[in-house]
Amino acid sequence: MLAVGGGASAHAADLDLPPPGAFTIVVIPDTQGYFGEKTKLTPDSKDPVTNPVLANHIKWIRESLKDQNIVFVSHVGDVVDKNNEAQWQVAQSHLDGLFGLVPFGLAVGNHDVNEPSSDASLFQRFYPADKFRRFEWYGGSFEARRPDQHDFANNVNSFQLFSAGGMEFVFLHLECNAPDEVLEWAGEVLTRYHDRRALISTHMDLGIRKKPTTREGYISDPKGRMEWVKVHGARGNTAVQMWQKLYRKHANLGFVFSGDQSRVTAMRISEPGDHGNTVHALLSDYMSAGPLRLYRFIPRQNKVQVITYDTTRRELVRRMIYVPDPAQHQFMLDYPMIVAAAQSR
Q: Domain 23-343 adopts which CATH fold?
């Protein structure tokens, strides 16, 4: 059972410990809560730029690596709110605290590039592929074959390899509205590592299906896999197209994580791929506030426990303004991990 505690323990005393053999993948939602000079939240401030929520996320992860058996950290994009050097410097000051401690990957969101041109030069300067190559868990990134593919390359689309619970994983991080050549590359990666369990983080997947025409529409319009794009224009793929062209085709794919939709906040869809495998798609965008997601894999139960945890308040999240149902924040998913022979031992 999960237990809610009152203190801000350095060892996350408000969470129970994972059962034997379990491990945790952390998914960080959009972190657009920047304060200080020329930020969206405090445009008239003269204070230095800060991001207290991202700072708390990384601090909590570093403190909880052992207790929660954290084996991987993923960011679903919109690392910054304004694609400028000041915000990337702050993001880097926090995210670099993960290097050497745990494998991690970053999906590039629409706020992480110059919209609508998809210019990712600042991301590529602060988080180029060369920064990751010294780690054995870094698999590589999309490489440009033409000048018009430069914005997709140099770690803008990347993959990582890691092991946990006696299983081998490949984790892809795909940019927002990834173009066809990126999806073809991603398909080659999933095929090459077909014997590994696959996970994907991308920025836009679940949310408001069609681009809203009213402010209220961003809250109440029909929800599902998204059918509109924010970057790359006609070259960009919608979430529906990414499902059709990539996700559904690979038997080893089990999870797609996304963000982007703060007023949808939390949502999930589980549907079969072409090979009968269940693909769990999970949106978490907690309005750049304190919550993040813990995916606790429990091999002996063939379950993944999904925990939404606020690293600022140091408490479990039960409800949010747009999603008051606690079952959308704390729940279990089926995910086969142990074959019958192993279970009978």
A: Purple Acid Phosphatase; chain A, domain 2 (3.60.21)
